Amino acid sequence: MLSRQDSDMLGVVAGCLFGVLLGTVSGLVPGIHSNTIAGFLAGAAGPLLILFGAEGVAAAIVATMVTHTFLDAVPSTFLGVPDPDTVLAVLPAHRMCLAGHGEEAVRTSAIGSAAGFLLCLPLFALFMLFLPPLQEYIDWGIGLVILFAAGLLIVYSKTPAWALAVFAASGVLGVFSLGYSYFSFGLFGIGEVLLPLLTGLFGIPVLLASMRSSQPLPAQNFSGLSISRRDILAGGLRGAVAGAVVGWLPGFSSGTANAVLVVRRSSDFESMDARSYLVATSAANTANAVLGIAALYAIGRMRSGAMVALGAIDLPPLSLMMAAAAVAAVFAYLLTITSSRFAPLVMRLNQPLLAKIVLVFLIVMSFVFCGPFGLLVLLVAALVGMIPGLVNVPRIFCMGAIMLPVMLLTLDLIRL
């Protein structure tokens, strides 16, 4: 007969594996974010506590979150559909897919996520020790940092006037959507309004272009990674630092970190090295998730839906949560590499028909989780998201939907 300690450990292991499974589903299926799965775990906490125990449920939440940051590269690459954390990574990844290097893009993203996880661990320790006493000053300066970053992006664009217009239009839409997010009432209660907002801005325009295209996606060929170890380390470190910073700061997301990563001349964004950027953005995505755990344990701040779900139960030891995150990262890396090998199967599908199916699925998902308000946001966001293609402006400026509300909020100019 198992002792109490053995039973608790078995629950943690089972919960971790269950989280890996859920994270795989949320990563591979377009439109399902890890926050959605976290909400499901929180809502089903009663029976799950019986199955896994409190520590097992916590391990499931952490494992889901970490696994998702690896697997979400697959639909971003092959379908061009983002979630709130891959809205910018989808651009170079899908471009590589159109050039026949989709499998390489997914593998590069997986390496970036793995690098981000490993490189953010020292930052995790430093943040836990030194940042809590400085939190009050950090909160005050966030809006100014975003203002500076957005200003650089716009000034160094090819057409600053159009860049400003797209940034402002998406920003106003973001303020409206987040300000009235309590209207996003779906079948499961209040839904995450970022789902229709960012899907409309970044996913719908890509799908509509795929539906109009009569040319099938090219055959995918993989003959190895075309990126050096030095570039992997440099991109992973850059992404880990950016992801760690926004993982600690209130109101930021991995999407914001990815925007900061391209504050360099945004006019070069469409032609920048896709592989190095994928490593950096994937590293930022995973580091952001991991440092969210540090923020919860150190200062009680909940940076994501997953952390809100975790904070709703008795927090287990931090070492246990980091062990669950590490196990999930290993499984997620292997699953992502395996998923990339199924690229030929995806390529045999009728791409315009597949785009239509995904489009209908995303519309249904927006309604299910956010109701009529979600459909309204999705429609307006799709209209705004088509502007960059019409005026030849990089779609990065649609990140105003996130950056402007956070900037105004932290400068105490609006209340959301």
TrEMBL record:
InterPro entries on file: DUF112_TM (IPR002823)
Keyword Kinase: no
Source species, domain of life: Archaea
Keyword vocabulary terms for this entry: Membrane, Transmembrane, Transmembrane helix
Residues that span the membrane, as ranges: 37-62, 110-131, 137-155, 162-183, 189-208, 277-298, 318-336, 357-387, 393-414
Keyword Protease found: no
Signal peptide coordinates: none
Residue stretches making up the DUF112 domain: 16-399
Record-given protein name: DUF112 domain-containing protein
Naturally occurring in which organism (per UniProt): Methanorbis furvi
Lineage, opening ranks: Archaea, Methanobacteriati, Methanobacteriota, Stenosarchaea group, Methanomicrobia
